[in-house]
Structures are given as structure tokens and as C-alpha cells.
Design brief:
Helix content of chain B: 40-55%
Radius of gyration of chain A: 29 Å
Number of helices of chain A: 21
Shape of chain B: flat
Distance between the termini of chain A: 54 Å
Oligomer: heterodimer
Structural class of chain A: mainly alpha
Number of strands of chain A: 3
Strand order of the largest sheet of chain A: 1-2
Strand content of chain A: under 5%
Order of helices and strands of chain A: HHEEHHHHHHHHHHHHHHHHEHHH
């Protein structure tokens, strides 16, 4: 008899995804898409009490796979992914697509199963499954997204292979123990694992798959993609590498550099993809700090981030659904047609910018306070700069150029009811998790360590508002004097230029040179091969020189000599 | 605030007719005067917060904490970022079809035609 409490809750969602793939009735599929994450959430609640739960242990080929491990840290990600799964399902209710429904469920399930993996090999399986299932969401973006999907798949499969190699090296060094706990960077396996996780998390120079694939995915696909992959990687880093100093600086760089790209990017979904990178930087930095306050900041920020970032992607998706574009240069004045979407976008923008009473105000300040308490002034200064950057690209640019700015003249319908419902629920959560009376305390109850942090102190509110009001004032001044750059259609090149242009160019050059060489060398090659064949025939054929000039016994002697040499080599080696 | 219907110009009346009913009370946000004067709102907020910063100094001070320091950081960082956009754009911007993949979806480039007016 199988005990269902020993089954990883993510597997139920994967099962629902497989059923969806063969289910022709749209309503049944949509019911499954909506109920499966809810069911998984109920299962997590049933399995996890207050103590760590280990289950689903399978022995195969002498290796122990722990397919279920729920503790305080994985529980947060598990519930969060279930919540995101439900919101995404509501958002995508209008879309009648079997591939989207099926891959969304398998992807969600794989991410949940991944965070509940108790060993590195089980993690690897679900790590790769997230990549394989989610690429269909990218490809649903249309013809143009095909190449981006292939690049996305290549990057993630490479990350998975690296994870597996790292796990094997790490496991062998630990006497065959593949348990996924704190790993650290003092072994080659640890370094490989961090690199694998860093690729999936969008570390600097490995980040381009996010800005390449996400804006090219389908409208609902982008919303779904924005939740799981990078957060699964973030969870893995939080579990395996908390307190590693190098992450402080990787995170700080990660928070700063995307803001420069976001400010010149015209496509607002790509702006949000850079913004996602920047927010992950805050969390990676906090993982590097590793104190209880910082780790609470990470867990809190990941919860709010999934909600407000999903909300912002949802609003841009709704705009794209109605107008067909998410380019700042083509939009403007949409508050006249889409007032609800405007309000939801403003809530998302205020949340990511950490306005008081909105989501990130509580959690981001935990991260900044943790850096301040540890006297990490350089990373703190970088994070403050990045905060002003967040205000620019997500706080101002996205809502301003979409809903205000110059009137584009587009008069479209408000978003469909299901999109509005999903955006409304996400907006509500953005407010609830920062509400001073019982709201942020609810968030605190989910965090991994006991929290003794009060966000609504007068000094904190005042200094945060100073920063935000000053940034908005700067925007108004720069706009007034014509110093704010207008949005122009362009492809902004990033580090992916090295493989999309330079690498491709080198590969094409080598190919062309090889072809040219082959053509030019045909005569020479033919002469050489024919000549060599002729010579060999003249020497070794029955009518050749060897047979003619030497006694017939010589061939037997030569063969015996060769055999002796071969046996000697085998004996020595 | 929203004008009475009889005081509206023809253009304003058309704007009101085409707008979503819930957006009508907020159409003033698109007026030139609102946009021009909006600056006073964040500026006043910044000045008030700077003044309040004297009454409630930060508990944990960073080396750069002085009167209005966070406002200075916010203004300077934001301005630096935006002013760097011009040179960065010249350096990094290429044609939308630079990679030969047709840029990102929009009405001109898109082949999907999946927007729903």
C-alpha cells in the first residue's frame, strides 16, 4: 500500500500535466490546471507539521534517492509555487491551448518537486524537467521564439549536466552521500554546483537567457516562466551556499548592472526581465550575508518578489493581449482604456520600488539592514544605487510609458475578467504582506528564523520615502528639461552578442574555410590517396614487392613479430 | 478634477466618450497642466521627509548618513542612471532585426496577430 504522504507533492501536479497532454476537453484541462496546485498545497499542509519530514526514500543501483524532504526553508518555496500556480492558472483561463496547460503544470510540478528533493540526484532530475517542460512555453511565442527556445534549452541542459557532474564529484568526495544540505565552496564539486545553479539563477554573464527567452514567450508563458526557474535556483543556492562571501559581491553586481540595460530597453517585457535579474541580485547578496536577518530577508523577498514580479508581467501581458505590443515607443495613454490594469500595474510598481504599505518595503529593507549590521558598506551602497534603478525601470518607466506619457491614441478594451482577477489577487497580496496591522506579521510567520525586525519605524519610513520621492523628483526634472531619453525601437546588445553574433560568426567562418579548403584540396587529396593506395598495392598485394622478393615464410615471421609486440604492450599496461 | 459635461470642449467630450467609464474621473491625469505641475508632489514629499529626517535620525547609521543623504543618493543615482542612457544607447543599440530573428512581437513585426482589440 502506497502512503500518499510519502509522495512528493510536485509529482501530483506533474501527473495532472501528463493527463492534460492527452485531454481534449478544454474545461477539464482548465479545472486540472487550477486544482492541481491547490491539491499540492493541501498535501504540503498535510505532510509538514513543524519538524523536518523525510520520505519517499528509494534505493536504486546502490544509490539512495530521497524524493521528499520538507523543512522550514523548502516549505516556503513549496507553498509559494502552489500559490503562483493558482494565480497563473486564473490568468491563463482564456487560453485554450493543450500544450500551454500541460507544460505549465509539468513545469510547476517539477519546480515544486525540485525544492522538496532531499538529495542532489533527485534535484537534478527535476532541474532538467523544469527546462524540458518550460521550453514549450517559450516556443508558444511564435515562429520568432524558436531560436530563443533552443538557446534557452541549451543553457538549461548545460546547467543540468553541470549540476549532475558537480553532484557526482561532490558525492564521491563525501563517500557516496548525495544529501542536499549545505555544500560550501571548499571542494571542486561545490564550485561546479554553484556554477550550475548560478547559470539558472542568472548570475552576471550567464543572465542572457532570461532577457532572450522571456520576452519572446507567449503572453501567459512569460508570466509562468517568471516564477519558477530562477526561484528554484535561488532556493538551491540558499540551501547549499548560505554565508559564502563571494555571493555578496556577485549579488551586488547582479543588482546593479541590469538597471543600465533596463533604462535603454524599449520592450517593456524585456525591461521586466532585466528587473527580475536585478531583484535576484538583492536575494543572492543576502544569501551571501547569511545571517538570520538576511536569510529571513531572502525568504520574505522571494515571496513578495514572485507576487509583484508576476503582477507586473501580468499587466504587461494584458496590455500586449489587447494592443499586440509591449514596446514603450508604441504605447502610452492606456489609463484611459485600461484603468484597472493601470491600478494593478501601479501597485506592482510601488511594491517593487518598496513604497511603504506595499510588498517589498518590509522584505527589501531586511536585506539592506542585514548588510548595514554586518558593516558591508560597499555592497550596501551598490544595493542603494540599485534601489534607485528599480524605481527608474520598474517603478516609473513601465507604468509611465504604458499608461501615461504621450497618448498613443489606442483605445482598447480592458483586460479579460480572468486576467483582472489574477492581477487583483496579486495586488491584494502585495498590500496584505506589507500591511502594518497583522499583514507583515503573517509574512513573518512563514520565515525560516524568528524575526525581530520592525519595518514601520519612523526613521525607516522617512528615509525610504526620501529616496523614492527624490528619484521621482529627478524623473520630473529630467523630463521637464528634455534630458530623459525618448524610447526608440532598437535591439540592445548584451553579453549574448558573444555567442549570438561573434561565436556564430566564428563558427560560420570556420565552416566556410573548411568547405573552401575541402574544395581546393580535392585534387591534392585525390592524388595523395590514389598514390598511397597504389604504393601499398605495389608492396603488399599478392603480386607486390613483398611477396615477390621475400620468401613466403617472411610474411609469417612479420605477423608473429607484430603479435609479440602487441602481447608485450598488453602485458606492460 | 473632472469638468461638468457642458463645459467640455469637443476633443474632451470625444476623449470622455472613448474612455473606459471607470477612467473618466481620472482623465485630468492626461492634461498638460497636471503633467506640468506634477513635479511639486514628489518635491514636497522629499522636502517634508528631509525635514522629518532631522527629528527621526536613522538608528543604524551608514558612513554616508547626513542631513537628507538618502534624498541626495536617490536624486544623484537616478540622474546618473538616466543620463548614462544616451551614451549607452549609442554604444549598444542596433537595428531591431540585428540578430536576424525579427525582433520582438509587435503589430509591425509580429506574424502571430494574436492581439484582441
Amino acid at each position: 500500500m502506497i502512503d500518499i504522504l510519502q509522495i512528493n507533492p510536485g509529482l501530483w501536479i506533474i501527473l495532472a500535466g501528463i493527463i492534460c497532454a492527452f485531454m481534449p476537453v478544454g474545461h477539464v484541462r482548465k479545472t486540472l490546471v487550477l486544482l492541481a496546485p491547490l491539491f499540492a498545497g493541501v498535501m504540503i499542509f498535510q505532510i509538514y507539521g513543524a519538524q523536518e519530514v523525510i520520505g519517499g526514500v528509494i534505493n536504486y543501483a546502490g544509490i539512495e534517492f530521497t524524493t521528499l524532504r520538507i523543512d522550514r526553508l523548502s516549505m516556503i518555496w513549496g507553498y509559494l509555487f502552489c500559490l503562483a500556480g493558482v494565480l497563473n492558472a486564473i490568468y491563463a483561463l482564456h487560453e485554450k491551448c493543450r500544450i500551454t496547460d500541460s507544460s505549465a503544470l509539468i513545469y510547476t510540478g517539477a519546480a515544486i518537486a525540485g525544492v522538496f528533493a532531499g538529495d542532489l540526484l533527485t534535484l537534478f532530475i527535476f532541474w532538467e524537467l523544469t527546462a524540458l517542460s518550460s521550453v514549450f512555453l517559450v516556443w508558444k511565442g511564435g515562429e520568432r521564439s524558436y531560436a530563443a527556445g533552443l538557446r534557452y534549452l541549451a543553457v538549461h541542459v548545460f546547467s543540468g549536466v553541470l549540476l549532475l557532474a558537480g553532484a557526482i564529484v561532490y558525492g564521491r568526495a563525501n563517500g557516496g552521500d548525495f544529501t542536499f544540505g549545505h555544500i560550501g565552496l571548499d571542494s571542486p564539486g561545490g564550485l561546479m554546483l554553484l556554477l550550475a545553479m548560478g547559470i539558472k539563477c542568472g548570475f552576471p554573464l550567464f543572465h542572457n537567457w532570461i532577457q532572450d527567452a522571456y520576452p519572446k514567450a507567449s503572453i501567459t508563458g512569460t508570466v509562468i516562466l517568471s516564477v519558477f526557474t530562477t526561484k528554484l535556483a535561488l532556493y538551491a543556492i540558499a540551501r547549499g551556499f548560505a554565508g559564502e562571501d563571494i555571493l555578496i559581491y556577485i549579488g551586488a553586481v547582479m543588482a546593479v548592472f541590469p538597471v543600465f540595460f533596463a533604462v535603454i530597453e524599449n520592450d517593456l517585457r524585456r525591461v521586466l526581465a532585466y528587473s527580475l535579474n536585478n531583484q535576484l541580485g538583492f536575494m543572492v547578496c543576502a544569501i551571501g550575508i547569511g545571517t538570520p536577518l538576511a536569510m529571513n530577508g531572502v525568504a520574505g523577498q522571494v515571496i513578495t518578489h514572485v507576487i509583484f514580479k508576476g503582477l507586473l508581467f501580468m499587466t504587461m501581458g494584458a496590455v500586449m493581449f489587447r494592443t499586440g505590443t509591449a514596446k514603450a515607443s508604441e504605447l502610452g495613454g492606456l489609463f484611459r482604456s485600461m484603468p484597472f490594469t493601470t491600478v494593478f500595474c501601479l501597485i506592482g510598481a510601488g511594491s517593487i520600488a518598496a513604497f511603504p504599505l506595499l510588498a517589498a518595503f518590509v522584505t527589501k529593507s531586511m536585506i539592506l539592514s542585514a548588510a548595514l549590521e554586518e558593516h558591508l558598506y560597499i555592497p550596501l551602497a551598490m544595493l542603494l544605487f540599485a534601489s534607485a534603478g528599480v524605481m527608474e525601470h520598474s517603478g516609473i518607466k513601465v507604468p509611465y510609458f504604458t499608461f501615461f506619457s504621450h497618448d498613443s491614441g489606442r483605445r482598447v478594451k480592458e483586460a479579460p475578467w480572468n486576467m483582472l482577477t489574477a492581477m487583483g489577487l496579486a495586488s491584494l497580496l502585495c498590500i496584505v504582506f506589507a500591511f502594518p496591522f497583522g499583514g507583515y506579521q503573517l509574512l513573518y510567520s512563514l520565515l525560516p528564523y524568528e524575526v525581530n525586525y520592525h519595518p514601520y519605524t519612523p526613521d525607516h519610513v522617512i528615509f525610504q520615502l526620501q529616496l523614492l520621492f527624490a528619484a521621482i523628483t529627478a524623473f520630473c526634472v529630467l523630463k521637464k528639461y528634455g534630458l530623459y531619453p525618448s524610447e526608440k525601437r532598437a535591439e540592445v546588445i548584451d553579453f549574448d552578442w558573444t555567442y549570438r553574433k561573434l561565436g556564430l560568426g566564428i563558427a560560420r567562418w570556420i565552416g566556410a574555410m573548411w568547405t573552401r579548403l575541402s574544395v581546393n584540396m580535392t585534387g591534392v587529396r585525390k592524388t595523395c590517396v590514389d598514390g598511397m593506395g597504389k604504393k601499398l598495392y605495389q608492396i603488399f598485394s599478392p603480386a607486390g614487392a613483398m611477396s615477390a622478393a621475400a620468401p613466403s615464410g617472411l610474411a609469417a615471421v612479420l605477423t608473429a613479430g607484430m603479435l609479440v609486440i602487441a602481447l608485450l604492450i598488453m602485458f606492460i599496461t | 478634477m473632472a469638468k461638468a459635461p457642458e463645459n467640455l470642449t469637443e476633443a474632451e467630450l470625444e476623449e470622455r466618450t472613448n474612455a473606459h467609464p471607470m477612467a473618466v474621473p481620472f482623465l485630468f491625469l492626461g492634461r498638460e497642466s497636471t503633467i506640468k505641475n506634477f513635479i511639486w508632489f514628489p518635491f514636497a514629499g522629499m522636502v517634508i521627509c528631509m525635514a522629518l529626517g532631522l527629528i527621526y535620525p536613522p538608528h543604524h547609521k551608514a558612513p554616508w548618513d547626513f542631513f537628507g543623504s538618502w534624498a541626495v543618493i536617490g536624486f544623484a543615482a537616478y540622474s546618473f542612471l538616466v543620463l548614462s542612457a544616451g551614451p549607452l544607447f549609442k554604444l549598444l543599440a542596433r537595428d531591431e532585426d540585428y540578430y536576424g530573428e525579427g525582433g520582438l512581437p509587435d503589430p509591425d513585426y509580429s506574424t502571430e496577430g494574436d492581439h484582441h482589440d
